[in-house]
Amino acid sequence: MNWVSLLPNERAAELVVPLATAFAGTVDAVAPRSSKWGDFRPAHDGKPARIRVNRDLPPDAFLLTLLHELAHAHVDAAWLARRAAFSGGLSPLKQLTSVLRGRPARPAKPAPHGSEWQAAYRAVVTPFLTEGVFQPGVARVLEKSLRKPKASCGADPALLQVLRPKTTERPHVRDLPEGSAFRLVSGRSFVKGPRRRTRIACTEVGSGRTFAVHPLAEVVWTDAPLPAPTPAAPEIHLHP
Ligand SMILES: [Zn+2]
Questions:
Q1: Which of 34, 105, 138, 183 could pair with 134 in a Cys bridge, judged by C-beta atoms 3.0 to 4.6 Å apart?
Q2: What is the CA radius of gyration of the chain?
Q3: In angstroms, what is the span from residue 201 Cα to ligand 1's centroid?
Q4: What confidence score (pLDDT) does residue 50 get?
Q5: What is the CA(95)–ligand 1 centre distance, in A?
Q6: What's the 84 CA to ligand 1 centre distance in angstroms?
């Protein structure tokens, strides 16, 4: 296990290693990918199931991504078992009869972040919350996220905000020197002007019109000498 040292603390390792060991596949920390934090691939063509998590994630994000993928692994294993039980238990004639009666021929494959996954994720994450493994700020947002009706998908913006590595934060308009060109998330480009009471007067490139821009507006590109802005954090997990 090349990833135990990436966990937030020893208690996290004690709790997650048995889960990873029970998983009939491989778990690896891998070189960072910009499109996703982790992924789960079911067993196929004789290859075992596989979980991969980016090794550059901060400890809490690494752990939560691993738990997210383990929940996928759990749903997949449960589905395979249901499917095997179904095909094993019915003769071809009975399967046909079952279809004619309007019943599904086989158990339906669960949706990637559907209710089964949500239940598995909740079950997997809860002991880590109870044991105080996560930093308080992360735990607070995570608890709230789990309570939401359609809880706990990796796409929860508040959760991503608290987990996101500092290096992927975009600069704000207030951080730029006056006179620098910049682009906002909306795609509109401006040149930064003087600060007014609560806003910054900026001239739109192209139209030449002046706009009052919020100092905390996020900058996606600038010619100012700042660390290159990187894309916002992706969802924890992107499905093909
Ligand atoms: Zn996922």
A1: 138
A2: 24
A3: 42
A4: 97
A5: 32
A6: 24
